Amino acid sequence: MPGDSFYITTPIYYVNGTPHIGHAYTTVAADTAARWQRCKGREVLFLTGTDEHGQKVLEAAEARGLTPRAHVDDMVPAWRAMMDKLQVTHDRFIRTTDADHEALVRAILTKLHDAGDIYFDTYEGWYLVTDEVFVTELERTEQLESGAQSEDAYRWVSEGNYFFKMGKYQQALLDHIAAHPDFIQPEARRNEVLGFLRRELTDLCISRPKERMSWGVALPFDDKYVCYVWFDALINYLTGTGFQLDGDASYQKWWPVDYHLVGKDILTTHSVYWTTMLLALGVDLPQHIYAHGWWVSSDGDKMSKSRGNVIDVDLLVQEFGLDATRYFFLREARFGADSGFSFEGYMGRYNADLANDLGNLAHRALSMTTKWLGGVVPQRAAPDAALHATAVAAVETFASQMDRLQFQQALVALWDVVKAGNKHIDTTQPWALNKAGETAALAAVMRDVLEVCALVGTLMAPVLPSKGPELVAKLGASPPTEWLTELLAGRRVLDGLTAGSALQTGDPLFPRHRELPPKIAALFAVEEPEEVPLPEIDWIAYDDFAKVELKVGTVLSADIHPNADKLLVLQVELGEARPRTICAGIKSVFEPAALVGRSVVVVANLAPRTLRGVASEGMILAAGGADVVDLVSAAAPPGAPVR
Ligand code: MSP
């Protein structure tokens, strides 16, 4: 039985760039889980924020010609704006430059240093500049061989640094993982971590000399160094609870955190670095670390700024709305697995699920009741048994899957009841009941489907924070808040509305998109190249060209024609029984002796013709028209065909 508080975190985002859908995804997932737990009556702490120290951020600042401080202050509003646009309900937006966080980092560094868990040593080895980590020779070789990195990503360094005794806690961590099978989720990720821990865990370098990288929390015991960005960043999860080394235990209201949500690329830092840091501090380990997959482009590449294939969240929200964007994230991808993003897929999901299934159900329920039953919620009769059973099952599955962050499965389960609602209308044919004057039967059907809308609108609120409540509002007096508790306990299923409440029709909840909105379509518009016409030519058919037989030849001799000023008489070897005699008008350009041994291309099937008394048995190709510039030649043996 969970306690009545729930603590969830997202990774804190690097402010070396602006947010894209990958970042929005984790944030929406955490927000949905937070909202869901609040709906269930739990007190929630939802922490997100920005990771502002370290080399990446420093480089981004330098590239803009700003101080790191000015750069981070300038970047943070874009991250806050992304969260506002998606109606993210974080309780704190933490920045690693916040004073309370920096103070806690310093206090933890001091404590671990005093305890002997941080020590000084000289390190000589490879440094992976992009990831700001030291790597072993073996890791470097593996990364190079897999193509993950290139040679220039590494620098050989030899410097004094401070190290955290991570290796000392390897066994304790392994024991914890063994004793808590759902500590690292999904299971495949747990196995990945166990695989990583099969090798001996080395100690972690947690300092950077200021002369090389100055943007970070200065080490309290040596101000020539700053703290390694990950060691600093991970501590944010404790800062967010109000944790203080010498403070009271009030942080335990939130700690141990229920879920750290992370992308699969930062699993090791969380499940190995962070957990060993906590073990060293004597603080309980997180309850769950959940690694989700990546949004990849339709050709399978991870989306990232450096690859230039990122999808702008603003555009999705602007054109389809924040609810549609949130719904897509959670419905399209299994939480944990990678998923490909395409605008067509996005629009298809929107049209099928939101415009068609849910939008239609709401529209039919509201408009039919308005047309035939005076626009108020009809009296409750016994609900249709099959529809009721479907609804009970859907609520149960939805709730248990939401508890386990299985958003996709939760939504699929809820759609069973949406689809059943539409089917109920199709099979009971309210229009026929109305025509036949069967008002009681009509009222029962309409109440049932209005109730389905109320149920879906209410349960969907954590996913659709704007449209969920809007749908419920269209159903007249909102269901009382305690209804949700009843519903989740399997009571009052299809019984949340109040008879007589006035319905509101109005615009559809999710207008259908027949084609991609112009701003999105414009991203794919390919500029048609201007059509440049070919010159006017007296074309010949291919068959005519194919009649010409071209061959490579070698000039054996060249003599001046006895009766013509411009001609030379060549003997050309074509690999036949005897050389050919060919007259060519090239005397003004070539010394006869210079032609001997040259390769030429000969029209070999041109009918022989006598030129001023000498029979010419072919023609050699020359470039330059009337004023010949050069002969066409080919580096191939005599007789080789030219095509
Ligand atoms: N600053 C670190 C986290 C420190 S947590 C103490 C960091 N920041 S990040 O901005 O690079 O990434 C933050 C999160 O965004 C990671 O969980 C990462 O997996 C996620 N995503 C970035 N691109 C992504 C996709 N294309 N798809 C899904 N999520 C991805 O790492």
Summarize this, please?
The protein is of the alpha/beta class.
Question: What order do the helices and strands come in, and which of them pair?
Answer:
Elements (H helix, E strand, L loop, with lengths): L4 E5 L3 E2 L6 H19 L3 E9 L3 H9 L4 H18 L6 E4 L3 H16 L3 E11 L4 E3 L1 H9 L8 E11 L5 H10 L4 E2 L1 H10 L7 E2 L1 E3 L8 E2 L2 E6 L1 H6 L1 H4 L19 E5 L3 H15 L6 E5 L2 E3 L15 H8 L1 H11 L6 E3 L1 H31 L11 H19 L3 H22 L1 H6 L3 H21 L7 H8 L7 H7 L29 H7 L17 H5 L3 E11 L7 E6 L6 E5 L7 H4 L3 E5 L5 E3 L2 E3 L2 E2 L1 E2 L6 E2 L9 E2 L1
Parallel strand pairs: 1-3, 1-13, 2-3, 3-4, 8-14, 13-14, 15-16
Antiparallel strand pairs: 5-6, 5-7, 7-9, 10-12, 11-12, 17-18, 17-20, 17-26, 18-19, 20-23, 21-22, 24-25
Helix pairs in contact: 2-3, 11-12, 12-13, 13-15, 13-17, 14-15, 15-17, 17-18
